[in-house]
Amino acid sequence: MARITHGIASSHIPVLGFAADHGKTQDPIFKPAFDGYRWTREWIANEGKPDVVVLVYNDHASAFDMNVIPTFAIGCAESFRVCDEGYGPRPVPSVVGHPDLAWHIAQSLILDDFDMTIFNKMDVDHGLTVPLTMMFGEDCKEWPTTVVPLAVNVVTYPPPSGNRCWLLGEAIARAVNSYEEDLNVHVWGTGGMSHQLQGPRAGLINREWDNMFLDKLVGDTQDLRHIPHIEYLRETGSEGIEMVMWLIMRGALGRETRCLHRHYHVPVSNTALGHIVLEPVDGTVPQSPTFEADGAVTTSID
Ligand code: DHB
Ligand code: FE
User: Which of 3.20.20.140, 3.40.190.10, 3.40.50.2000, 3.40.830.10 would CATH assign to domain 3-298?
Assistant: First the structure.
């Protein structure tokens, strides 16, 4: 049986991809950011190595545009090319998919009432490739894992609610646990933390709020699922909303998590850098939401 063994969250700051691609990771400005991933790189190259990563990320108008805006989309292709974001594609390997698991997850999610968009051809941008670089290093000739990309709209209003993301994570856990092959599956949530890239508040960073968010990913609190969009906007800037993607990862880990590693660093680019490695404490797979007679939806993890 496939199992979700770990959840990882990480910012996907494009300039760190640039630094990795141009031999600048030891430059004074970038070194502290990369140093915070040393523990993870060591761990993931050894006992933490996944067979598949369900990589939750957002496309930044690179593949999708205003013509098509899927709220949740899953990539079922054999492979995904690295897209050109204006300066040529990053010189990193193409991303190898896991079509069989991806189709299984797509079927399970859709029959579990999540209306997924399925994509079979899509180039992936820094939202997906920068976290791969941060975790696996800058010298990969090929990525040491297969990837099921799961794209979330956090670019055009309205993004999904934090609660909906958490519920999707729970549904991903049900999907993975019903896949027969023995696979070590990670779920990664990417983007964030506080950042605003444009307008009068550009450069906004909120260390206190970001660290509250990191604190509450650990343990059994469910507070984060109820944070409204307006709070992300007010406290963490217009792009801070990317953090709802971390809640898909958190929801997939079940009732309680423990923290294996945590890193928070400012400044790098316009964004607060956050990174955390989590493991489920009891591996409980949440049950499907049930509809009560009065129409209320509840979720049980017993
Ligand atoms: C930056 C961060 C992002 O999440 C992004 O998508 C683009 C740029 C930045 O910090 O520069
Ligand atoms: Fe982003």
Answer: 3.40.830.10
